[in-house]
What we know:
Pathway: Amino-acid biosynthesis; L-serine biosynthesis; L-serine from 3-phospho-D-glycerate: step 2/3
Pfam family, one: Aminotran_5
Cofactor: pyridoxal 5'-phosphate
Distance between the termini: 12 Å
Number of strands: 12
Number of helices: 10
Protein name: phosphoserine transaminase
GO biological process, one term: pyridoxine biosynthetic process
Structural class: alpha/beta
Amino acid sequence: MIPDELKPRDGRFGSGPSKVRADQVEHLAALNPGVLGTSHRQAPVLGLVQRVQESIAELFELPEGYEVVLGLGGSSTFWDVAVCSLIERRSQHAVFGEFGGKFAAAAARAPFLRDPSVREAAPGASAALQAEDGVDVFATPQNETSTGVAVPIERIPGGLTIIDATSAAGGMPIDLTQVDAYYFAPQKSFASDGGLWIALLSPAAIERAGRLASGDRWIPDSLNLQLAIDNSRKHQTINTPAIATLGLLEAQLEWMHASGGLAGCAARSADSSSRLYGWAERSAYARPFVSEPADRSPVVGTIDFDDTVDAAWLAKSLRANGIVDTEPYRKLGRNQLRIGMYPAVDPEDVTALTRCIDHLLS
C-alpha cells in the first residue's frame, strides 16, 4: 500500500476517457431538467450546441471561413467520413502508431479510391508527410495516442491536409491556417464522453465535401460530410446526440478559457510531461519510450521499464491504491506505463504519481 501523503489528489491518468472534473458534473446536473431529456431539435439543445461551437471557435482562434462541424460516432467514424467525403482519388498517410494505421487501412479498403501512399515509422518514432503527385489528401495524427509520439503540423501543398487531433486538440498548440480538417473527439483534453466527432474545416475542405456529395459517388447519410455541415450550421447533428456529452464538453471549454485558453492549457500539459519525462530520465529503472525528445508527446507519456520491473504488476498495484488507467496500449506489448496528461490533470499529481512508483519499487 502507498501512504496517503504520497498519493495524488486525483488518481485518474487515463489516455481516454480521461479525468472529468467535479465542476463538470455539477454543470451537467444544472442542465437537468431544462436541457437533459428534451428534444434535440428545440431551442434549449440547439443553444447548447451553438455555445459549444462558438466556444471551440474562440479557443482555436478559428480563421475566417473555417467552420466548426459536429457529427456522431467519434474520431474512428470520421476516418470513414473522410474516406467518403474528402479523399477524391488518393491519400497519403503518416503512420507511426495504431490510429494513423487505422485511417490508412480504411482508405485502402475503399473500392472507389486508389491504394493510399503510406509513410510509416516504427512505434516510438515519427513519420512525416511529403508532397507527392497524384495525392489529394495528406493525413497524419498530431499526437499518436498509442505510442506517445507527437509531430509538428505544416500544410502539405497539392491537396487537403487532414489532422487527427483526438488526443492533441486542447492540449497542444495548432495553427489552423496550416490544416484543412482538424478533427477530434471530446473524451481526452475536453474531459467529456465519446460518441461525437468535431471537425474544424477550411473553406477548401467544405468545397471538397460539397463537390463529392453532389457527384455520382454513393455516400451513406451518416458518412456524408456535407449533411453534417448543413446540420451543424443549424446547431444540430443528423441524428440525436448525447446531450450529456455536450454538457460536459461545454463546462470543460469554460474552464479551458478561464485557464488561459489554448496556450494556457498547452503549457499545463507541457509542465506535466516535463515532470514525467524528467523523472524517467533520472530513474535507474525507467526511461521514456520515445527516444527523441522532440517527438515526445506533452499529453500522452509512455515510459518503459527495465527487466527488473514488472510494469503490469506496477499498474495493478497503482490501481489498488486508487491510481488508475496507467496501463500501456494493449497492442503495443511493451513493459510500459502510459500516462495521460491532458489539461485537467494537475501537474502536481504527475509528480505525486512518480513518487508513488518509486515507493512501490523501493
